[in-house]
Amino acid sequence: MKKLTIDTVDGAAEQITVLSVTSYEPIYRLAWLFNQQFGWNLAESDALIAMNQNNDMLSFPVYAWSDAESGASYYLVQHGEEQDTLMRIVNYWLRLESVGNAADIARKIKEMAEIMYVQEMKPTPQNNETVIFRNPLYQNNL
After folding, report:
1. pLDDT tens-digit profile of 100-116?
2. Residue ranges per domain, the chain?
3. Are 75 and 94 contacting, i.e. CB atoms less than 8 angstroms apart?
4. Which of 87, 105, 90, 93 is nearest to 63 (CA)?
5. For 92, which of 21, 119, 122, 142 could close a Cys bridge (C-beta 3.0–4.6 Å)?
6. Which fold has domain 4-133?
7. In which residue ranges of the chain is pLDDT below 70?
8. Cβ neighbours for 29, distance < 8 A, ≥ 6 positions apart
């Protein structure tokens, strides 16, 4: 699994993998399932605030956890229903920062009965999916 290298606000580079996930489970249940499967501690966090192409403010629920011991961070972001075609299929993004075993995590998620679809998102110059995690309106710049 190829990782994305994205420059952070302070100029440092970090390793980020973004997975698209489809599940009928609500975000709190999916966070609980991931916590059980991987030993994480995802918890409800501040919502991600973004603007769409019509300059409408959108809010996306987020569950997050940073592992102080390993330096890895995990963000589960839920999409709204008024999104474009891809967003109607994919209802969650899972952002993995500085996670050495991202390919193993993706494989294990695919094996979970509650998951219908998992795919690594690979930005292109025409379609940079990671922009949802780099919004200046969100103080933590997920």
Report:
1. 889 999 999 999 999 99
2. 4-133
3. yes
4. 93
5. 21
6. Double Stranded RNA Binding Domain (3.30.160)
7. 1-14, 51-52, 80-89, 122-142
8. 114
